[in-house]
Amino acid sequence: MNSSKLFEPRSLGGISVPNRLVVAPLTRTSAQADGIVGPMMTDYYTNFAKGGFGAIITEGTYTDQAYSQGYANQPGITSSVQQESWRPVVDAVKSNGAKFIMQLMHAGALSQFNAYNTETRAPSSVLPKGEQMSVYKGQGSYKTPGEISRPEIEQVIEGFVLSARRAKQAGFDGVEIHGANGYLLDQFLTDYTNNRTDAYGGSVASRVRLAKEIAIAVRQEVGPDFVVGIRISQGKVNDFDHKWTGGLSDAEIIFGALSGIGLDLSLIHI
Ligand SMILES: Cc1cc2nc3c(=O)[nH]c(=O)nc-3n(C[C@H](O)[C@H](O)[C@H](O)COP(=O)(O)O)c2cc1C
């Protein structure tokens, strides 16, 4: 097998990445209790850059001080203090030659810990399948979420937009919207967690609407010279085997909705 292409540079949106080796987003829960970058994080990310990876996507980072946080010791990007705490990590990664992309995440019903709220929110009040992950200090069933209201949906969108702006100000090269793995945007997309009868529920086109609106709003906020991507998946951290009910026809609608809206990167984790 010829792997030389892996080591060739490529462009991603407006930036040039030195090779095609990209570190996948990996939740580590090593931030401080208040969502500020912890001391282990700089070493962790810098080591990948020193090792020659062309780009690194951060762990899922929460986007607002309402319902987005998923895990204890998860980092956030919801205030200028959290924003500035990322700067030394960004500087260290970029001075070692890698591009750095922040993954923006809203946990929705799968939130196991939230410093700002005791309740959870999701498209519909449906108890999540499975159990909380003990590796992230969770225990037992998830909470039954409250149905998210339209004003709260607006807050979610604003959270992603402001977080993208903060990531740009902190020196990141781009953001990836976490639309995968069972978290809030995937809860909207998934038939059995979304029973809404408004514009965000019902058909697949309506269930992907929130992810699409967020992608459009983020792109508008950060302008053209900043990478904006989205990650979507069928499987979930609490339901590994889920498949889109409509199969290929659902895929066509989802990919169609997310194309032509200015995204540079779509990671499909089937
Ligand atoms: C400990 C752990 C944490 C993860 N955290 C995230 C995350 O924060 N965001 C995300 O999109 N995926 C996350 N993932 C999924 C990985 O990015 C990756 O897709 C998964 O490990 C499968 O890898 P593979 O596609 O090489 O099989 C995590 C996986 C693991 C094992």
Task: Describe the overall structure.
This protein has 270 residues and is of the alpha/beta class. It has one domain: Alpha-Beta Barrel (TIM Barrel). The protein has seven helices and ten strands. It has helices at residues 39-50, 80-95, 150-169, 184-189, 204-207, 209-222, 247-258; strands spanning 10-12, 15-17, 22-23, 55-62, 99-105, 121-122, 146-147, 174-181, 227-236, 265-269. The strands form three sheets. A six-stranded parallel β-sheet has the order 3-4-5-8-9-10. Strands 1-2 form a two-stranded antiparallel sheet. Helix 1 (39-50) links the parallel strand 3 and strand 4 (55-62). Helix 1 (39-50) runs parallel beside helix 2 and helix 3 (150-169) packs parallel to helix 6. The two termini are 24 Å apart. The mean pLDDT is 96. The chain binds flavin mononucleotide.
